[in-house]
Amino acid sequence: MKLKRREFLAGAAAMAVTPAFAAQLTPKTFPQDFLWGASTSAYQIEGALDVDGRGPDIWDTYTKQGRITDGTSAARACEHYTRYPEDVALMKAAHFNAYRFSIAWPRIVPTGTGAINAKGLDFYDRLVDEILKAGIKPMACLYHWDLPQPLQDKGGWQGREVIGPFAEYARIVTARLGDRVKDWMMLNEPNVVSIFGYGLTDQAPGLNLGEMGVLKALHHQNLAQGAALRAIRAEHADLRLGTVTNIQPVRPDTDSAADRAAAIRWDAVWNRVTVDGLLRGQLPDVLAEQMAPIVQAGDLENIKFPIDLLGINYYSRCTMKYDPDHMFQVWWGDPKAERYTFMGWPVQPDGLYDLLMEFKNLYGNPATFIAENGSAYDDVVAADGQVHDLERTQFLQEHIAQVGRALGDGANVKGYLAWSLLDNFEWSFGLSKRFGLIRVDYDTQKRTPKDSYKWYADFVKQARGL
Known about the structure:
Strand content: 5-15%
Strand order of the largest sheet: 1-2-3-4-5-7-10-11
Order of helices and strands: HHEHHHEHHEHHEHHEEHHHEEEHEHEEEH
Largest sheet: 8 strands, parallel, barrel
Oligomer: single chain
Organism: Magnetospirillum sulfuroxidans
Number of domains: 1
Catalytic activity: Hydrolysis of terminal, non-reducing beta-D-glucosyl residues with release of beta-D-glucose
Mean pLDDT: 94
CATH class: Alpha Beta
Helix content: 40-55%
Shape: globular
Protein name: Beta-glucosidase
Number of helices: 17
EC number: 3.2.1.21
Structural class: alpha/beta
CATH superfamily: Glycosidases
Radius of gyration: 21 Å
Distance between the termini: 39 Å
Number of strands: 13
Family: Belongs to the glycosyl hydrolase 1 family.
């Protein structure tokens, strides 16, 4: 019988480390207390959007507007709201010792402010207890893009009205779960929320408010984060507090002065507004004049906070070119990479090493962990009923090797969490892009661990000395 190329490669190599990284990738590189696991977000996996008192959010509205490219919705997603014990069992079987998940703001405070929904808190009680029973560290993220629609109706991240409600929501959740959940992340990727939600319309709330709309959303998320950090710290001295941001090393498409200036400007918008604000209490010089009208006295002091742990999401570098017809006069150039994922993103593992060393050398080597790193591919179920995702397995191997390389060179990196545990609702792409270590059949909800899951589970077992 003649095997298809995919099946042949899967059988021959999916469980083996690629030769180029064999010398770098060894479980002995990592300390035994290193955090290993995966990440998810509430909206992408939970489903149950209209049960137990959950309120509407901006993604519900965006979906109803017909803006999801494949016409699907997150109404069911992975049905994690009811199937979470099965999903936690799969984490335990993979020897994970950490799991980052998000809490859905509209489940807890359905209108964004005011009345608390007890059933929402009850669900996260059950989830946290299940995670702990499996011997896994729960790492909670308070905001993974599910802004309650009533707050968006008041301006959302364009104004300061959201700051107080977010801090109060943070206080409510940590008061309930802080006896068991000790690691708390405030935001997830505020740069993506701002640029794609308020500037490019590709994500909820899908507004085209130009450069100032983007900068306002960045600044007000920074302020809300600072307020939440202070609100939690005032009541809980024992919690480890942090946040999660998407970082991409930025480089110019060419050596022209215009492209170099474009790269500097985009680096400021994409990376520095959030990182420099939190860690240094500063604005990037290149944006200071433009942001001056929205920055009030005391803002930068309120944004800066001594966090305990910084989550870094990495997918690829950003290669930029000057384009006067686009926002901030920049656009993504062609990085001419050898490989791309099914999102069209270049595969550039060495960029992860670069950014970890940047935090070591430029930001005082804060404690960091990889909160997301993963890839979407056109996964199919083979004739043997399995998913032989060689590309994703190689992606994991190469990127974990770069984390080990940075660790060896002194970077203060504490863990690696893959994106994502499950195939899920990939925002504006709907259910058409699969990032999971575990395949989800959205019709039957059957979970099928992929070859990448199996390789990762074996590696984690060795790294933890189990």
